[in-house]
Structure formats: structure tokens, C-alpha cells
Design goal:
By secondary structure, the chain is of the alpha/beta class. It is built from 27 helices and 10 strands. Strands 3-4-5-6-7-8-9-10 form an 8-stranded parallel β-barrel, surrounded by 4 helices. A two-stranded antiparallel ribbon has the order 1-2. Strand 8 (359-362), helix 15 and strand 9 (397-400) form a beta-alpha-beta unit. The model is unreliable at 1-27 and 29-40 (pLDDT under 50).
Length: 674
């Protein structure tokens, strides 16, 4: 194998090497070339070689019989699940049961029921409500109503009924739209992100290992995708975002939209499609464009929003790709050109200031700016907020990337995160509303994996409606949460660090840093020590640990090897950062925090719940009721995802993706209890 990544396949089973799976996969699909296609194929091949004979047998069956029909059914044997502890408190249990009337229990999906009970369990154990049955009943009723109020819009039954809270017809409570900058498109404030709506993360251009399109389009994930899109359209969500590099997502989403057009449920002009292709040399860009266009042309006719994917500067490849895109726009194949980015703030500002794009997909959240965190914004500050404001000044459409996931993994929030945000908002609701009202985003991308993921999203849009009719003061509610969170920052970090800790730090492309992503790492330190956001910080640091960095090569070669979608590397004690930190108010404290983050997060093993609690990083609740069907690519479960792909699911639900036995058992147990 001329491009072998793993000369010793057995290394794949040393936990430390998990982090390289994600890095190499992401690098290869972000910087596509014939060589990198081979690299992805060999990554999967190496996975197989390092495993048992049963996997080899399964690969053979896959080659002969195709993809297994039993894939995506989750774990096949249910794990033992205990009832919530509030069930052992007779007065509280009776109060909660009274909130779940027979009618409401019947209307609730299994996913919604599990999520509600997990949140109630958190409130019971951590919210000081063990002796307050009345309050627990009120919380239960509130959570139930948040999961049920919008369902008539989805089922299109009683949509003209009056909503009790707002006094408005339900049909008027669909997701609102905003003008998407100079594109003049009316875009819904929620975007259906397609990263999790797919069969597999393996790119659909990988030969041999990719599942057949016919199999994919008849699969359980395709049925799930169509249901998600149908629900979004019914609720007024009109923007669907995918990418050439999102595995099989692009053609699966296009097929679902096409079928809904054919069935008369929607017209082409009623929705907005965005797809993204990485900037490349002319030959590669045209090759990937043709693949995307072959998916879209006959089904949907044109692309509304066409993005250069994960760019970080106006490189030669970006110039070439932009020129081709502009010609495609003249031909009417695409309507508007923008870019998505995970770059540093200075790089993003430079791209925005070219004024050559109509919109930008960018990270900016209350809990940080992703890779922009702690990087200079060119205006004396740090992070991407100044970039967002500049884009708005230029009348660009501004799209918020992943506030729920990359904004802090808020579907599995920490205890402190939940408690500080308060009872009037969930962490998910807070993230969305903060983006719309305090930052100014036109739309926020929600990576749907299942229809029930809309529960918390629609609860947030309902608050916008309640504000509009004067029933709540949403700014006051948001300000209260922000003040509590900021007060905790100052309490834990100190006022001086809270104000200046992330300022005057060079970004990872500055030679003095030797590629270390100082600002991003310090941002993780702040989140972990202040809000206990361990899982999010762990995932982010693992991605930096996996960054390829060959010190034998020149600085220019090392920088070039850093993927624009995942720049920067982890802390390296061998690097002298004196020059890099010369403008910071407290260089010694920076070094101390960098070392701490590395000690906390570089270990191969996750901390146990007991260890997290001892450190003050206690978990909150878990709204992931079953693992999304393609698997969580950001986690170290990626090896299992690759094995599932390589065997066509013929090892059973190896990656435990989809609604499995444990999920079904938990839902059944709760229904019987309530």
C-alpha cells in the first residue's frame, strides 16, 4: 500500500490512536484528491485488517449480498435501565403521573417521553425539588406542552385552532423567516442541517466500499430523512443544507425533496437548498461539482446557495473555485455564492472584506467562536463577533453554524450550564435565542438526526411568538441568563482574566506559536473550569491532538498540512512560547492553563462520572435518546462507524446507531410507569 497510514494495523486498538481516525478522515474529505481518496479507502481497509476473522467474513458477505437490512437498528440487546429516582418518592411520583394524562401520553413520541423524564430526573435530583410535588408537576406539564404544541402543524390537523399561550392561530406560529442579506431570500430562522441526515459518513465517491445508491434510498435512514424534511416544511423551515463531503447526505436529501415535490407536498420555489464543495484546483473542483450537479440537476433544477466549503483564505484554489462558481451562476445553475469557514477570526475577516461573497456560514456562540476563540479579530478584540457584525454591515447573509453541537454540545449539557441558564430557558433554547437576538444571525443550523430533535427548537421559536404578542420580556430573560453565566466566569476566573484572558494572543498560523492553538485551548480551559463542559472540551481537544505536525518539515510545509476545517494543534511543552505571549498581560498564567488543559484532556480514557463530580464538572441530562444513524463522527466511536461501513452492517448494529433495544426498553418502561 503506497499511501499506507497505519503500517501496524494492531495500533488501531490502542485507544490513543482513535483520535487519528477522525483527523485523517476529515483531512482527506476536506482536501480531496485522488491520493486522499486512496487514503480514506486504506483507512477503512486497515480497520478491517486489524480486527478479527469474523469481520473479514462479514466483509465478504457484504460484497456478495450487499448492505444488511438489519443495520441502523441500534443495540440488539437492551442494557439494564432503572426507573427515574423520582418514582420512589410517592408524592412527587403521583404529581408527575397526573401531568401525563392518557391523551398526552399517547401523543408523545417515545423520544419525547424519554427526554422529558430525563430532564425531570435532573430537576428532581439537582434542582432542589425533592419535596415539592407541585413544582415538579408544573415542570412536567411545561415540558409536555413544549413537545406537543406544534404537532398539529406537522400532522396538519387543527392547524387553525387557537394557541392558548399566544392567543394566535397555530398556523401563524410557524418558524419565522428573515431576509438573508443581499441574496434577498426569505430564509427561516432555523436551517435543517444535513450532516446527520445520511446513511454513512463515507463519501459517496469512494469506490467499492460505498453502499449502492439503490440500497441507500430504500433504507431506514432514508425514511427518517424524508420524515424530518416533511416535518420541517410543515413547520415553516425552508432551508436545507448539505455538502459534497457529507457522506451520502447530499443525494439523500435531494431525493427526499424531489419525492415531496412529486407527491404535491411542496413546490420547488418554496424551499432553499444549500450545498458546499471544498475549494480545489480546477480539475478536482470541476470533478466534485459534476458529482453534486448530477445529484441535483434533474431532481431540483438549480442550487439556491452554493458555498465554498471550509475555506480559510483567498488562496489560488479559492480564486479558481470562485471563478468557476461565478460562471455557474451566470449559467443559472446556482443562484448565490457564499462560503463556510472554521478558520481564525483574522482569516475570516479578510475573506469577508473581499466583498466577493453574498453570505457566510460562521461560528459565533455564547460559549465561544470555535476555532476563532482567542484569535485576534483585527479590531482589538477576539473571536468571530466582529466578523459577524462586519458581514451584516456588508449586507451579507449570515448563517450560524451548529449552535447546539459546536456551540457546546448542548443536547448533553453540564449541570452548571443547565442551572446557570435557569428555568425559563433550556441550554438549546438559550443558544438559539442568543444567536438570533444578541448576535444577529439570520438563520441557525440545527443538525437534525430525528424528528423529535425539533421539540427544543420549536420551544425556542414559540418564545419569539410570545414576545411578539407581549406575553414575555425575552430580552430580560436572556439578559438574566447571560448575567448569571458571566458572573460565574468572573467568580471562577477572576475579573481581570474574564476581561483580558483571551486578548493579545497570536493565532495558530503565527510562527511564534509553532501551530499551537493557544486561544482555542484557553477557551476550553475557561469553559471547563467555569461551566464543567467536559464532553465538549474533550472532543475539541482530541481534534487538536490529532493534528499532523512533522517538525522535520519547514514551517511553511507544516502550516500547509493543517486542514482549514480543523486548524491548530494541542499544547506542546517543548515549544518556547515566550515570544508568542509577549503581549499578553499574564504569560505565566497562560502557560499554566495550557498545561492544565493538556493534563485534563489528553488522556486516552474518559473520566468517570464520579471523577467528573469530584472536579466539579458534573453532567446534566442527555437528550440523545439514540445515536444518529451515520454515527457520531466527532467522537472516538468513529472506528465503529468505519467498521459498519466496511462490513455493510453485517456485524449487526456494530456502531449501535439508530433506535435500538435499549431505547425501546426505556420508552416501554416509562410508559408502564406513567
Amino acid at each position: 500500500m503506497p499511501y499506507s497510514l497505519f503500517p501496524v494495523p494492531s495500533l488501531l486498538f490502542i485507544p490513543h490512536t482513535y483520535r487519528y481516525y477522525y483527523y485523517y478522515y476529515y483531512y482527506c474529505v476536506t482536501y480531496p484528491s485522488d491520493k486522499h481518496i486512496i487514503l480514506v479507502s486504506e483507512l477503512v481497509t486497515s480497520t478491517i485488517m486489524g480486527n478479527t476473522a469474523s469481520i473479514i467474513t462479514s466483509v465478504g458477505k457484504y460484497m456478495v449480498f450487499g448492505w444488511s437490512k438489519d443495520s441502523y437498528k441500534g443495540d440488539l440487546v437492551a442494557t439494564e435501565i432503572s426507573l427515574p429516582t423520582f418514582c420512589s418518592n410517592a408524592p412527587v411520583y403521583a404529581a408527575i403521573k397526573s401531568a401525563f394524562t392518557k391523551q398526552k401520553l399517547k401523543q408523545l413520541s417515545d423520544e419525547a417521553l424519554i427526554k422529558i423524564c430525563r430532564q425531570l430526573e435532573f430537576l428532581y435530583k439537582e434542582g432542589g425539588l425533592q419535596n415539592d410535588p407541585i413544582a415538579m408537576k408544573e415542570r412536567a406539564e411545561n415540558l409536555i406542552d413544549k413537545s406537543l404544541w406544534y404537532l398539529p402543524l406537522v400532522t396538519k390537523q387543527s392547524a387553525n385552532a387557537i394557541d392558548a399561550e399566544t392567543g394566535l392561530e397555530l398556523s401563524s406560529l410557524k418558524v419565522p423567516t428573515r431576509r438573508f442579506g443581499k441574496t434577498n431570500l426569505q430564509i427561516s430562522v432555523i436551517t435543517c442541517g444535513g450532516m446527520r441526515l445520511q446513511n454513512t459518513w463515507l463519501p459517496d465517491f469512494i469506490p467499492v466500499l460505498r453502499p449502492s445508491r439503490k440500497t441507500v434510498l430504500k433504507s431506514l435512514p432514508q425514511e427518517n430523512i424524508k420524515n424530518c424534511i416533511r416535518s420541517c416544511l410543515a413547520l415553516g423551515i425552508n432551508h436545507f443544507e448539505t455538502a459534497r463531503m457529507y457522506g451520502t447526505s447530499e443525494y439523500q436529501i435531494v431525493e427526499a425533496l424531489h419525492e415531496l415535490i412529486q407527491e404535491g407536498e411542496v413546490k420547488r420555489e418554496d424551499f432553499i437548498l444549500q450545498t458546499k464543495i471544498p475549494a480545489s484546483n480546477e480539475k478536482t473542483f470541476i470533478k466534485f461539482w459534476k458529482q453534486s450537479w448530477s445529484n441535483i440537476e434533474k431532481k431540483l433544477g438549480y442550487i439556491d446557495l452554493f458555498s465554498l466549503h471550509a475555506i480559510d483564505k483567498m488562496s489560488e484554489n479559492v480564486e479558481v473555485s470562485l471563478k468557476i462558481s461565478e460562471q455557474l451562476k451566470k449559467e443559472g445553475k446556482i443562484r448565490h455564492i457564499g462560503f463556510s469557514t472554521h478558520a481564525t477570526s483574522e482569516q475570516i475577516m479578510a475573506l469577508i472584506n473581499t466583498d466577493r461573497f453574498e453570505y457566510v456560514n460562521i461560528h459565533e456562540h455564547f460559549f465561544g467562536s470555535y476555532h476563532g476563540t482567542g484569535t485576534p479579530d483585527t479590531l482589538g478584540g477576539q473571536g468571530n463577533l466582529a466578523c459577524v457584525k462586519r458581514a451584516l454591515d456588508l449586507d451579507m447573509g449570515v448563517f450560524q453554524i451548529s449552535p447546539i453541537d459546536k456551540g457546546g454540545k448542548l443536547f448533553r449539557p453540564s449541570k452548571d450550564c443547565v442551572s446557570l441558564i435557569g428555568q425559563e430557558l433550556t441550554p438549546i433554547g438559550f443558544a438559539l435565542l442568543y444567536g438570533w437576538k444578541k448576535i444577529g444571525f439570520h438563520t441557525a443550523s440545527i443538525g437534525l438526526a430525528r424528528v423529535s430533535d425539533l421539540d427544543e427548537v420549536m420551544a425556542a421559536t414559540k418564545l419569539l411568538a410570545l414576545e411578539k404578542v407581549g406575553k414575555i420580556d425575552l430580552d430580560k430573560i436572556l439578559d438574566g441568563a447571560v448575567n448569571r453565566l458571566n458572573a460565574r466566569k468572573e467568580e471562577i476566573l477572576g475579573i481581570e482574566w474574564a476581561e483580558k484572558g483571551l486578548l493579545n494572543i497570536p493565532h495558530c498560523y503565527d510562527k511564534d506559536t509553532d501551530g499551537i492553538h493557544i486561544g482555542h485551548i484557553l477557551g476550553l480551559h475557561d469553559l471547563l473550569s467555569t461551566f464543567g463542559m467536559y464532553e465538549y472540551c474533550r472532543d475539541r481537544y482530541i481534534s487538536m491532538l490529532g493534528t499532523k505536525w512533522n517538525k522535520k518539515k519547514s514551517w511553511e510545509e507544516r502550516v500547509e498540512s493543517m486542514p482549514g476545517a480543523n486548524p491548530g494543534r494541542s499544547f506542546d511543552s517543548d515549544v518556547d512560547l515566550t515570544e508568542a505571549l509577549k503581549n499578553h498581560y499574564n504569560p505565566s498564567l497562560v502557560l499554566q492553563k495550557l498545561k492544565q488543559v493538556h493534563e485534563w484532556l489528553e488522556s486516552d480514557d474518559d473520566l468517570s462520572d464520579d471523577e467528573l463530580e469530584k472536579r466539579g464538572w458534573k453532567k446534566g441530562y442527555n437528550l440523545t435518546v439514540w445515536t444518529e444513524m451515520p454515527g457520531e463522527i466527532d467522537s472516538r466511536a468513529v472506528q465503529m462507524v468505519l467498521l459498519q461501513v466496511a462490513t455493510g452492517g453485517r456485524l449487526g448494529s456494530l456502531a449501535k446507531t439508530g433506535p435500538g433495544s435499549s431505547f425501546q426498553s426505556e420508552a416501554k418502561q416509562l410508559r408502564l410507569a406513567l
